[in-house]
Amino acid sequence: MKRLLIALLLIQPAHATTRIKDIAVIQNVRPNQLVGYGIVVGLNGTGDNLRSSPFTSQSIQSMLDRMGVNIRNNLMNNSQVQTKNAAAVIVTGELPAFAREGGRIDVTVSSLGNATSLEGGTLLMTPLSAADSVIYAAAQGQVSVSGFTAGGRAEKLTQGVPTAGRIANGALVERRLPIELERFKSFTLELLNPDFSTATRAADVINSYTTSTYGGRSARAKDLRSIELLRPPRLDAARFISEISELPIQPDTPARIVIDERTGTVVIGRDVKVSTVAVAHGNITVRVTEMPKVVQPAPFSRGETAIEDRTAVNAEQPDGTLFVLNGANLQSLVTGLNRMGLKPQGIIAILQAIKSAGALQAELVVQ
Fold first, then answer.
1. How confident is the model at residue 296 (pLDDT cuts 50, 70, 90)?
2. Residue 95's beta-bridge partner residues?
3. Pairwise CA distance, residues 20 & 191, whole Å
4. What is the pLDDT, as a whole number, of residue 206?
């Protein structure tokens, strides 16, 4: 039985439709990244080594000073705090659009020093700021770690990443983003996959809906990425965006083949076309075998036993069959490649050769 093609094929139905909200977003309505520096305490001897992580020691001293605990005089004879139950961490999170004061968001806690595990630790209150250096949230809570490390002197077992964890709803929003949707009379939709045809189709679908519902056109395709929307009078922005987002559209996809040579994955788009081309593919196998032979001297001679080298070289090349691929559509292309009984690496080589010959009417992306 021939070996079938092992590939991943993304095939869209001929009339596949999707919602506008799944292929486009509102410009400037997006989450914002937050970052902060904090201390995790309560670790069971798996924290930072303070001799090699001086910033952790300085952070502990500064924290205790703010709490009214003076330990600097006790450190005259010892330059560092001797504890392994604390670790310096970087806390990251995303502030969603329209988040209000008092809301909660998830945060990720990652070790900054040489701590071996954050399991069982508690993050102390950590301010989180955005790119404008303004504090928008504060994080604190028990760190949840999925990985673990166990072992002895001779062997150690590590599963997952024990030096990174997550705190669900661990950050409290202190400041909201200055976005007021109601004051905008127009919006801009940005396509996730820019394409002139998709932008034009989306504008036509929106105009057809607004004309029949509100008596006027509201959309205009500015370029391959942006669609400008004009909000109808006496209609609130949230309702208008909700109605527009639910409209169905058939997006256009470019003719593209994506191949990953490391894993042997081949992804072929629906609109890929191949001109009629003849393909022959074969492998040559060369075997080199070493057969050393021991040579004994003649009786009563003064010779010595020696080893004589013998090498056998054999080359085999299976019969190559010439196949004709007439890729009028995706199904014809896949059927022709499967008929050849190739492995994924052979498929990748043939697709690259067809592209070089000018017979592949599609973009070839090699990862």
1. confident
2. 32
3. 9
4. 93
Higher pLDDT, 158 or 286: 158
CB of 281 closer than 8 Å to CB of 349: yes
Task: Give the integer Cα–Cα distance in Å for 233 and 228.
Answer: 16
What pLDDT band is residue 14 in, cutting at 50, 70 and 90?
very low
Provide the percentage of residues in the chain whose pLDDT is more than 90: 25
User: What's the pLDDT tens digit per position in 232-260?
Assistant: 888 888 888 889 999 999 888 888 888 88
Arithmetic mean of pLDDT, 139-144: 93
Residue 224 has pLDDT above 70, yes or no: yes
Distance of CA 275 to CAs 79, 324, 349, Å?
A: 76, 10, 17
Domains and CATH numbers, the chain: 18-28+181-249 (3.30.70), 33-173 (no CATH), 256-366 (no CATH)
Report pLDDT for 91. Answer: 96
pLDDT at 318: 60
Integer angstrom CA distances of residue 159 from 20, 150, 221, 260: 41, 9, 50, 28
Mean pLDDT value of segment 149-173:
79
Q: What is the 3-state secondary structure (H, E, C) of the chain?
A: CCCCCCCCCCCCCCCCCEEHHHCEEECCCCCEEEEEEEEEECCCCCCCCCCCCHHHHHHHHHHHHHCCCCCCHHHCCCCCCCCCCEEEEEEEEEECCCCCCCCEEEEEEEECCCCCCCCCCEEEEEEEECCCCCEEEEEEEECECCCEEEECCCCEEEECCCCEEEEEEEEEECCCCCCCHHHCCEEEEEECCCCHHHHHHHHHHHHHHHHHHHCCCCEEECCCCEEEEECCCCCCHHHHHHHHHCCEECCCCCCEEEEECCCCEEEECCCCEECCEEEECCCCEEEEEECCEEECCCCCCCCCCEEECCEEEEEECCCCCEEEECCCCHHHHHHHHHHCCCCHHHHHHHHHHHHHCCCEECEEEEC
